UniProtKB/TrEMBL annotation, chains A, B, C, D, E, F:
Residues 67-217 form the Cupin type-1 domain. It comes from the Eukaryota. Oxalate binds at residues 112, 117. It comes from Acorus calamus. Keywords: Apoplast, Disulfide bond, Manganese, Metal-binding, Secreted, Signal. Belongs to the germin family. This is Germin-like protein. GO terms for molecular function: manganese ion binding. Mn(2+) binds at residues 115, 117, 163.
């Protein structure tokens, strides 16, 4: 035997794209070990666009199940909010199906800061407390569409637009959200612009925000410790 | 002037398809009057695939808003369940965005009977009470994938498969669901097979269910009064 | 070396999704051995959304070919009908191309029972004999759209709707159908609702059909032996 | 009243795109009069991507029906072949559903000449007679994949590739084909290259085919009279 | 006659979605007057997802043409850059075809500031001068992928990610870009976050950027005058 | 151990389809060795619909980069033109993103001969020189839409239609084009119809072009040596 191959599949291995699944479900195969290819001295994972499917005969109810969305998330963080996502990583049966759920907890004055989901619209309903929410439309209008939501209220944040949710009250707030992707992705503006790795050239940011470089320094003095 | 045309747009007028909207949102224009075309003696509505968009300049926060999802639905019906859908008909801002929410209320022993959503996967979380839920896979296996859910539990019902939720307990149950379409559509098996208008030929049903025509008569003696 | 990996690819291995193939064809590679991953003590097939492609250089006319659609299918079955599908399993060249053909044979009084194809519209033309055909629209109208077809007649069964074809005459009937998927999938209502494995709880079915549990027992006394 | 508007809808008016219809069907509204907009002195039809939908309440079985596919087409033409298409123009119920049927008749030595359907794969089965069929793969291989088909044989012509069917025998031949679009479109090579209106500059064609301009003249001396 | 209707079509009227056009082209009908519906006292435009198609018989070469992409854009603006887009608004023939071009001019030290195109990937090639370009990946890595480009260099900015181009030199720079949508849309971070209308609550921004409200005031003291 | 498997991935291995990537980018993994499966005596590559993704952690700016589009291509060929494509094979970061660029060089009287891209619309801008360009619409009109382009002019060639570009002048010409696919594919009419391998039966071509077989012989006397 000259060459031996080890295939171990990373939990992030992806093969299927979103639209038009070719079977009723294609449960992500999280039980599989990391798929690594050893060829002589090289070793690398097989990563593709979507997750591989678990053998339909081995699929069971647990693959479509998640437990604990009634439990508060930990909001003891810099921004006072926490997102518990029930996406394809948590519930493998969501693979290829174009939807996920999330619970968002807010401490008093907790903020889910300005961010976008380029692959998902969010529809959110407030379960408890009150939230100031909003999104901003694209150039050139840049209109802020905002609303204060109370329990039972529902709000839509269209795919690709920058949006936020802010708990202005002194009590906790809780929301449940549906997202139109099993793997929505998140781009938080502050993280992307001021806390990238490496950082964006200060000249670029100073010019973009039309401020002195010192202000850019002040906003972004050191790496992030936690965050959304 | 020989011909005068009246265009009044039905609130169900649809122009946009699901994938790849060409703007960030296309709020369904529910405020527009019915669009009717009068040509001489004829008059007809303009119906297409999706809803027309409201002028973006006239869009406001109300278009993305719905209120009252914390209110119990009326379960005093034949099957003891009620679905409150927050879809494009209720929240015009969902137009083209591929997602909706729903609240499902169950009286004790209430049933959301076997049905399919050909355009949507459902992800449901139990807010209160307990539910027996399940879906059946396609031919030839026809496996029943089922689970008893309690508060905080989440379950996935893949697009196109027949599924149900049943409250086996003597208390009310409540669930919140995300659906992967702004206009999911529902085909309830009993309605489609036994209560269509007109009814399917008894010979067909007797042969399909491999029973005597009397049984078909027994199951389907008269038109439905309410239902999902 | 601690771990050795065996990759053998199941003939049902699927990698490509329906829309927008990236080459002109992607012939399903049915000649490949089962792809199995042996990691220590575990062994499992690699299943994804669609079929892998045969090397384009090895593709030949046989991959796009099927023979025998002029041969009557065996209708000596419980329901007196037989479907001969020319789909991606039979003709590998259909992979990713979104279409398949089928021949349906009906013995006298043969029935293709109420069923749906969640991934395909059917367009059927009668070659011989006569058929009562119909489909039922969704909630809340549940209209039955039906027609008696004779040789040369064509009828459309829209994707996702429950439909049937019934040979009411005492002669054989034959139809040729085009389906808008290379792998349409079938959900037969009686199989899914009364003959699932395990069976759906009788309480659910009795309530859904608004009949006594004895009727459910009568309809579904034992497992199916054959069927569509 | 300064301006009067006349809306009359052309039978070719199109509003819906192919993927993901938002209702189960969207029957093309062929009964509607031409939709024309008169604004002052201007008058123009409203043409969009797909057909408008007939009111679902007015839809009936005739919308999903076509009759006469058992009738031979007229092959008394220059190339000795005839295509009878059952597409959205013939059967309005096919609108948005992504499939159509066709019957192709061939006189002895009749030819369906090299052409492409950029929006559809063809799956064809021979009902009667014998056909030489083939398609050519793309650059740089340009492989001809061909086969002689007899009754009951099926062949696939992948979307976008140039293909032909030729009756080499002295008897008639008949085929039934499924196409993966309700409106496939046809580009016949000879029509597009040698018979366009106006004609392509002879210098271009002479250089492309690496022949003298006289040969181009010889091939394309005058406008086409009939053809596919 | 009680009601008279005026239909005048806005040049921004949109009917077709991106994927799978149903004809080879669907030229946006810019020549049509505004489509306005007058019903008694109300008057509103018809806006949908995409543009209506010009009558194919009236289409000519001008519909697929744009002139002047060799002319420098005006960079005498706050940020020293200018984008000349050849999109569906400029070249109506691009309607439904999923692509557009752009020329970007940079004065010395000119910046195309951090922004996203949620519906388009950009592929850019430098024609003249030198540019520092980059994009930032999503949470949680937020990696900055950057490069200095010179004439003849090409760089890809994936759909949905925040990116920028900066002319660090003292000479002009010019780039030509392809974008994967006929109507890409732009969200400039500074405009959306600091210059929306109305402005986002300072408490939200101060918390998001983890700075004092005075810094937010400093960055965003007054409305924008020009910009990208 | 009876069977040993070697997986080495061909650089043309394809896994992802065009629409809706599930991450922001999925860089084609060109660095991976050929993926070959050895099962006993058989050995074959794994080919699927799209390319596998490089590990996101290993992605760097080079993956999104191409250099040299300012360099003239070699036009010393039969037709006097040369296409330099910056597609997914050249720039791996284009994988799944639906766009590519190309530079086309024309010697005096150079021709990019009649061809189609079944998966891409082309938008071309002339950088230098002058070009006669055109495309032909589908049956039955077969209209030639043409234009003479000079520097700074832009023209659109809709997906699937036969088109050409011809340098009628005695100076070189250069164009830059955007294409709406990362892997557009090319079918050149003369190659497909007269130079396929094996050749199309002369009877078919003589009948299609309505000429004597000698003319077909004259046009296609021997295999192609170079070409587009």
């Amino acid at each position: 035997m000259l060459i031996v191959v080890l295939l171990a599949m990373a939990s992030s291995v992806v093969l299927a794209s979103d639209p038009s699944p070719l079977q009723y479900f294609c449960v992500a195969d999280k039980a599989s070990p990391e798929l690594i290819i050893l060829t002589g001295y090289f070793m690398f994972p097989l990563l593709v666009n979507g997750f591989v499917c678990k053998n339909p005969m081995d699929v069971n109810a647990e693959d479509f199940f998640f437990s604990g969305l009634n439990m508060p998330g930990n909001t003891n963080k810099r921004l006072g909010s926490n997102v518990t996502a029930v996406d394809v990583k948590k519930t493998a049966g969501l693979n290829t199906l174009g939807i996920s759920l999330a619970r968002i907890d807010f401490a008093p004055y907790g903020l889910n800061p300005p961010h976008t989901h380029p692959r998902a619209t969010v529809v959110l309903t407030v379960i408890e407390g009150s939230l100031l929410v909003g999104f901003v439309t694209s150039n050139p209008q840049n209109r802020l569409i905002f609303k204060v939501l109370n329990a039972g209220d529902v709000f839509v944040f269209p795919e690709g637009l920058i949006h936020f949710q802010f708990n202005r009250g002194h009590k906790n707030a809780v929301a449940i959200a549906g997202l139109s992707s099993q793997k929505p992705g998140v781009i938080t503006v502050t993280n992307a612009v001021f806390e990238s790795n490496p950082k964006i050239d200060e000249s670029v940011l100073a010019k973009a925000f039309q401020v002195d470089k010192k202000v850019i320094d002040y906003i972004s003095p050191e790496p992030v410790m936690d965050g959304q």
